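Retry 2 of 3 after timeout on previous attempt. Resubmitting structure tokens to design endpoint.
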């Protein structure tokens, strides 16, 4: 029986990305002087098993639902060691906060992945060894999910939500839903949950995928749909959240903008403090949305530890160039070509090509204008609002009548006192 770690390694090597091959000797890629790193967390248990799942009891798993497993910790430890080797010319062996900054979404598995990764990147040396454990505590920064518009992208954005609904109701997506309605009905019945979209399918697929990795026997009903019928829809689901330019700008634009700022500031020796690496620990959707924003994504589920590298380099002509690489296996990362540029993209051209995807004021751009509110007003909603206003007016009128009556009654009795001889 293969170990879970071995199975994970085999599965992640099967994804082929249609992009440039690994570093070509014909390219003048120069020397890396700065790196933005975005990666997905490591191996985890299912987040939300479907209601009829025979493996839906948390006690059947090595760690609670959605948590990083030992396999996941090991994956990121090895990735951190790979970073150490790749950036050995850039990073001193001893940790200093002036060299690296790490930000994670506020989720246990991404925080733990970042910490495991840093254990591989910065094994303590010299006077930084403080215990036989041989581990160096390094800060990982985060903010609550619902306040995070940079990495988790969960902060509420009205315009994004409205546009996402427009996409979900578009002819393209509706056709996919209509073509797969029979499958949706089958899954709803067998899984015991309402399946109405590709995202719902992806959730079930993801759970089954993990259960196969852990050698769990799947229910008989899954044999006719997993993986062949579910995987294409699950892969496609990763294109929905950043399906068009507006969604991309509002979903991943801030992250792209921050990375571009790092590159430009570094090229001018104006990055303060003068860091060499900026690390972002996040999710498969984060990786997919970011690549979608750069028009570099081919539908697939980014595997555990999938990594995007946006690196600033100085070539032999002393020019600043930018390279984008995608690492989703244990092999070397693949160079990707930003549409409209070369593999070794001049920094100025890179800034120009990405400018339209970066919001100038994210919070302001998230607001809906009156014409957009008006666009959402339908006749039923107008009728409902009218009824509500009528009810409010009637209640206010009754309240005013009651107050007037009360005061008049009080005034008529203000100077009148009943005598003991008055009949009771």
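Retry 2 succeeded. Sequence:
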């Amino acid at each position: 029986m293969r170990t879970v770690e071995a199975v994970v390694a085999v599965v992640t090597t099967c994804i082929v990305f249609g992009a440039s091959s690994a570093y070509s000797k014909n390219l003048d890629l120069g020397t890396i002087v700065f790196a933005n790193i975005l990666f997905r967390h490591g191996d985890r248990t299912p987040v939300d098993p479907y209601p009829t799942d025979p493996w839906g009891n948390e006690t059947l798993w090595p760690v609670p639902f959605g948590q990083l497993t030992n396999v996941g910790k090991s994956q990121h430890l090895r990735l951190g060691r790979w970073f150490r080797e790749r950036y050995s010319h850039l990073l001193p062996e001893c940790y200093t906060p002036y060299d690296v900054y790490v930000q994670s979404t506020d989720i246990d598995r991404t925080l733990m992945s970042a910490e495991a990764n840093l254990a591989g990147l910065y094994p303590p040396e010299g006077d930084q060894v403080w215990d036989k454990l041989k581990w160096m505590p390094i800060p990982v920064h985060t903010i609550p999910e619902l306040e995070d518009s940079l990495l988790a992208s969960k902060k509420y954005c009205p315009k994004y939500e409205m546009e996402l609904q427009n996409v979900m109701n578009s002819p393209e997506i509706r056709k996919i839903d209509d073509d797969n309605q029979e499958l949706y009905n089958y899954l709803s019945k067998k899984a015991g949950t309402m399946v109405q979209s590709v995202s719902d399918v992806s959730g079930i697929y993801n759970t089954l995928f993990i259960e196969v990795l852990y050698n769990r026997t799947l229910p008989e009903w899954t044999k006719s749909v997993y993986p062949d019928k579910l995987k294409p829809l699950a892969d496609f689901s990763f294109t929905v959240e950043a399906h068009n330019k507006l969604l991309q700008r509002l979903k991943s634009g801030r992250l792209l903008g921050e990375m571009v700022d790092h590159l430009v500031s570094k090229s001018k020796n104006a990055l303060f403090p003068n860091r060499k690496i900026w690390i972002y620990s996040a999710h498969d959707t984060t990786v997919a949305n970011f690549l979608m924003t750069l028009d570099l994504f081919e539908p697939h589920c980014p595997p555990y530890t999938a990594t995007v590298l946006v690196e600033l380099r100085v070539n032999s002509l002393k020019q600043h160039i930018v390279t984008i690489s995608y690492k989703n296996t244990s092999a070397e990362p693949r160079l990707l070509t930003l549409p409209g540029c070369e593999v070794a993209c001049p920094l100025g051209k890179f800034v120009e090509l990405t400018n339209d995807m970066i919001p100038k004021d994210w919070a302001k751009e998230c607001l809906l204008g009156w014409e957009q509110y008006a666009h959402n007003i339908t006749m039923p909603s107008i009728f409902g609002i009218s009824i509500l206003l009528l009810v409010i007016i009637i209640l206010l009128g009754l309240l005013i009548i009651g107050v007037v009556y009360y005061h008049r009654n009080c005034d008529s009795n203000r100077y009148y006192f009943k005598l003991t001889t008055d009949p009771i």
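Attempt log closed. The radius of gyration is 29 Å.
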